[in-house]
Design a protein that fits this description.
The complex is a heterodimer of chains A (about 425) and B (about 210). Chain A is mainly beta and about 425 residues long. Chain A contains six helices and 28 strands. Chain A has a five-stranded mixed β-sheet with strand order 7-6-17-12-13. In chain A, strands 8, 11, 14, 15 and 16 form a five-stranded antiparallel β-sheet that branches. Chain B has two domains: about 130 residues, Cytochrome Bc1 Complex, Chain D, domain 2; about 80 residues, Cytochrome Bc1 Complex, Chain D, domain 2, CATH 1.10.760. Chain B has a two-stranded antiparallel ribbon. Chain B has about 210 residues and is mainly alpha-helical. Chain B is elongated. The chains are: A mainly beta (about 425), B mainly alpha (about 210). At the A-B interface, helix 1, strand 1, helix 2 and strand 2 of A face helix 4 and helix 10 of B.
């Protein structure tokens, strides 16, 4: 599908009106504070009682899908429209930092169009002092940034056999590693004062479904992860304000964890004595504690998904690429893991019989993917393959085929790319 | 049946397989699953209850065991699907009959005589894609038929009431995007805010042409 065919005139019109609105909003919000600044102690929070926004927030409108897709490259292939999901495959992800135009899309409900000037973030529950924060309040706190992974729990789902229900993520779609700009969630929670007895912190999104019966998206994470210094309230992506599809004006970001642990269009944070009870906690995003047979239902004692296991993918060459004999092929890819660190990546050119250690770039930000590479000169002509297999510092190695589970989460099988070497 | 009516209505135009729509913007890609459900017992109920929130491809791309279809239906009820307890069995029966998977992982054979669903109409001006594709994508035909009331009024009734007034087109287009209740009874039509204004306009033009 060509770029042109994805963008009808109507969509461009929508884009233009949408862009004007967005530019206006950016002007209202002001530029996101320059990134890269080291974390430093936050300045004293200026107002104990932040100024109330002008009037109560209205129920947000929704951004039409064409307006969202106008902000994405054509290689971001659609998987569904209601809700909107889409992703680029590995060969279109050959970046150290994922550009916003290549960042995957995963909505559960409609894309809300939030009025930032009226938006407030409520911090409540087991806290000493309930907070009501505006975007400006958050912008007055210490701004910092990190490059970090975000990956849907179901990323790679269609590689499972049989394929479980859910978003049809391709084997290497449903993840990205952009730069996140924002504030530490821990700083906000310290301002509110977390009371003893707190166990989980829940995040509430402003997105709404097509019917009034549809529950909102709410997910909680343990207090320990919420207070980790890397967990953010993100206000920007790649040094620009968040776009509507990625959670404008603010979202939570729990790095290394499944995407559902990071809530877009964040409107409330609630500190709880136990995990939040709700469909996004109790029905989906769960994984069996013990292996189950393909086709089995979810066991009652399944766990909520948290950090991603070790994983890698080959970003060059593209599937079925062609090369000349004698030509050196600069193979490269990305490796990542939720909460540990990548120790090594090995490549195989004989379907896994023997492995060779790939070069591994120095570690960057804690939760960023790492580039691996090898210049490979094929000894023979014809069709051949390369496999990549990452190992983390706990000794976990990517399997060829990970354990099947009812909702198709955590695909981290060895990635295999075929290419042709011509005489 | 809703889709047959839509099909019949478009018979004057080109009847095309959904595959022909693959090049249209915003639709699924080549080799993509059907944009409407297979006709068969339970298709109307399934369309009304599922396609109101999801495009049909969520179903047509999927092959599941009966137990998985039950699990999925129950999860969707928790996610707000308007499915009454007595509707679960006929919906699951339909889904397993037409989108079932055998225990060995292969796709289950559909009932004998199952007709591949087709979409009628092509080349609708003013829309980012053809009206039938829009209607399938947004589930309009789950609740509306051309010439008789289903859950909502027939397209013909809508055309009769609003097609003659000056602001009728604008009014109906707004109701498509923002939802509506009271014009035709107490059952609300859910808002479809992901439909663009241009698409809503094209839908209204098509509906008004059914008068």
């Amino acid at each position: 599908m060509s770029e042109q065919s994805r963008r009808p005139v109507e969509a461009l019109e929508v884009l233009h009106s949408h862009r004007r609105a967005f530019i206006t909003r950016i002007a209202q919000v002001g530029a996101v504070v320059a990134s890269g600044s080291a974390m430093r102690p936050g300045e004293a929070f200026a107002q104990a009682a932040p100024a109330a926004p002008a009037g109560p927030p209205e129920a947000p409108g929704s951004v039409p899908n064409p307006a969202v897709l106008a902000g994405k490259d054509a290689v971001v292939r659609l998987h569904s429209e209601r809700p909107l999901t889409g992703s680029p495959i590995a060969e279109h992800q050959n970046f150290l930092v994922t550009p916003t135009r290549r960042m995957f899309i995963r909505n559960n409900l409609n894309t809300p169009e939030v009025d930032a000037s009226r938006h407030v973030l409520t911090v409540r529950g087991l806290v000493e002092k309930e907070l009501t924060l505006t975007l400006d309040d958050l912008r007055r706190m210490t701004q910092w940034s990190q490059v970090g992974m975000l990956e849907c729990a179901g990323s790679g789902r269609t590689a499972f056999r049989p394929t479980p229900r859910g978003t049809t993520w391709p084997e290497t779609g449903g993840m990205g590693c952009p730069k996140w700009n924002g504030v530490s969630l821990a700083e906000v929670l310290r301002l509110a004062g977390v009371k003893s007895g707190a166990a989980h912190v829940a995040f509430f999104g402003l997105d709404r479904g097509p019917l009034p019966t549809v529950p909102p998206v709410v997910r909680s994470i343990p207090v320990s992860k919420a207070l980790d210094r890397h967990t953010m309230i993100a206000l920007g992506m790649n040094d620009e304000p968040l776009s509507p599809i990625h959670g404008f004006p603010m979202r939570s970001y729990a790095p290394g964890w499944v995407g559902s642990a990071s809530i877009k269009w964040l409107s409330a944070i609630e500190v709880l004595p136990a995990p939040f009870k709700g469909t996004y906690m109790d029905d989906s995003y769960r994984i069996p504690l013990r292996p189950v047979a393909p086709g089995e239902s979810m066991p009652a004692d399944a766990a909520i998904t948290e950090d991603w296991p070790v994983k890698s993918m080959i970003t060059f060459p593209a599937q079925n690429a062609r090369f000349r004999a004698g030509q050196s092929i600069p193979i490269e890819g990305r490796a990542w893991v939720g909460e540990s660190a990548i120790r090594r990546v090995d490549l195989s050119f004989d379907e896994g019989v023997t492995w060779q250690r790939a070069g591994l770039d120095r570690r960057g930000d804690r939760y960023a993917w790492r580039r691996f590479s090898m210049d490979y000169v094929p000894e023979k002509t014809g069709f051949q393959t390369v496999l990549a297999r990452a190992t983390d510092d706990q000794g976990n190695v990517q399997p060829f085929i990970p354990a099947w589970n009812p909702l198709g989460y955590f695909w981290n099988g060895v990635h295999r790319v075929g290419f042709m070497v011509e005489v | 049946m809703a889709m047959r009516s839509l099909l019949a209505a478009g018979a004057g135009g080109l009847a095309v397989l959904w595959l022909a729509l693959a090049s249209a913007p915003l639709t699924a890609q080549e080799g993509a699953p059907e944009a409407v459900l297979f006709p068969g017992p339970g298709v109307e109920l399934t369309t009304q209850r599922c396609v109101v929130c999801h495009e049909a491809q969520h179903i047509t791309r999927t092959r599941l065991s009966r137990a998985e279809w039950v699990d999925n239906t129950m999860m969707m009820i928790k996610r707000g699907a308007p499915i009454a307890p007595e509707e679960i069995a006929p919906i699951v029966d339909y889904l397993f009959a037409f989108y079932g998977r055998n225990d060995d992982g292969s796709a289950r054979a559909r009932p004998a005589g199952a007709q591949t669903p087709v979409l009628a109409g092509a080349g609708t001006p003013g829309a980012s894609r053809d009206v039938p594709a829009l209607m399938a994508a947004y589930g309009c035909t789950g609740c509306h038929a051309v010439d008789r009331k289903l859950v909502g009024p027939s397209f013909r009734e809508v055309a009769e009431r609003f097609g003659k007034t000056a602001d009728g087109a604008e009014r109906v287009a707004r109701r498509i995007r923002e939802g509506s209740v009271g014009d035709w009874g107490p059952l609300p039509m859910p808002p479809q805010p992901t439909i663009t204004e241009a698409e809503a306009k094209a839908l209204v033009a098509w509906v008004f042409a059914q008068r």
